[in-house]
Amino acid sequence: MARGLAIDDTLSAQELRRLAFRERSVRTAKRMLAIANALSGMSRADAAAAAGMERQALRDAVVRYNAEGLAGLVDRPGPGRKPALTEGELALLAERIFKGPDPEAGGPSRWTLPDLAAFVDERFGKRVTPQSLSRILRREGFSYQKTRPVHPKASAKAREAFAKRGSVTR
């Protein structure tokens, strides 16, 4: 008969059960209990069934436990969702934002999220909602800045005079 996979016995079955009782994660606690069952002399199939898992899952837990200790029994984070824009696309978008809008060429007079979302759609062929684009830009270090309104018929000469002397005319 083939010998099973050896289990690291630095912690006893009682200690593993005590730690499993205090563990917040149910999946981690099941792994601890299954290993404790196997350490106390149960067959691997019975130990896994008593903890509510398959024999292969117990074997995987034992391999991780032997290699990493208790830390190996904790769930690992998943890969997560792929980012909406790649690093290169983010760099081009940042360049476009820093360059500023060009109203003389028929573009907007200031950047708005819908304008930038339209740019992303045209340039990269990716549909991004303005709300999602707002999150992406905040994560990249951009902040919302509102430009100071300027009347189109305002006199630059009057603005300069006001900046020098204030509102009092002489």
UniProtKB/TrEMBL annotation:
<feature type="domain" description="Winged helix-turn helix">
    <location>
        <begin position="109"/>
        <end position="164"/>
    </location>
</feature>
<dbReference type="InterPro" id="IPR047655">
    <property type="entry name" value="Transpos_IS630-like"/>
</dbReference>
<dbReference type="Pfam" id="PF13551">
    <property type="entry name" value="HTH_29"/>
</dbReference>
<protein>
    <submittedName>
        <fullName>IS630 family transposase</fullName>
    </submittedName>
</protein>
<dbReference type="InterPro" id="IPR025959">
    <property type="entry name" value="Winged_HTH_dom"/>
</dbReference>
<dbReference type="Pfam" id="PF13592">
    <property type="entry name" value="HTH_33"/>
</dbReference>
<dbReference type="InterPro" id="IPR009057">
    <property type="entry name" value="Homeodomain-like_sf"/>
</dbReference>
<feature type="region of interest" description="Disordered">
    <location>
        <begin position="146"/>
        <end position="170"/>
    </location>
</feature>
